[in-house]
Amino acid sequence: MYLSAEDMITWPESVAFLGMLLAVLFLFGFSVASWLEYRKLKITGLQQEDLRQLVSRYEKLAESSMDAQQRIATDVADLRTRTASIETILRTVE
After folding, report:
1. Phi and psi (nearest 5°) for 74?
2. Mean pLDDT of 10-38
3. pTM over 0.90
4. How far apart are CA 21 and CA 29, in angstroms?
5. Which end of the chain is more exposed for a tag (fewer CB within 10 A), N or C?
6. How far apart are CA 63 and CA 56, in angstroms?
7. In 3-state terms, what secondary structure has residue 3?
8. How far is 29 from 32, CA to CA, in rounded Å?
9. Distance of alpha carbon 34 from its chain centroid, rounded?
10. How far, CA to CA in Å, does 17 sit from each of 9, 27, 54?
């Protein structure tokens, strides 16, 4: 287990080994950071799509509510005219 004089690691070899180890760690860190950023963008995209669908459903609901309000307003106006005509008929009968 002891190193002999022939098996000694020289400074250039140790610096090269540490440089390669540092390069591998840098590439690993960069790939993890890139993967996390990709995942974050994917989740943000899904959230934006969900938000677009929600806005679309809200707009459809608003349109249908406006249509229903307009129909009710038309019906109320029709009832008012009928009520007014019935009142005039009743006044002429008296």
Report:
1. -65, -45
2. 96
3. no
4. 12
5. N
6. 11
7. coil
8. 5
9. 21
10. 10, 15, 55
Q: What pLDDT, on the 0 to 100 scale, is given for residue 10?
A: 86
Residue ranges in the chain assigned as alpha helix (H): 11-93
* Distance between CA atoms of residues 75 and 69, nearest Å: 10
Instruction: Give me the pLDDT at residue 80, please.
Output: 96
Q: Which amino acid is at 3?
A: L
Q: Which residue has the higher pLDDT, 9 or 28?
A: 28
Question: Token pair for residue 47?
Answer: 């959230």
Q: How many residues does the chain have?
A: 94
Calculate the CA dihedral of residues 25, 29, 30, 32 and round it to 10 degrees: 140
Structure tokens given for 33? 């950071």
12/3 Cα distance (integer angstroms): 18
Residue 6 gets which letter from DSSP? G
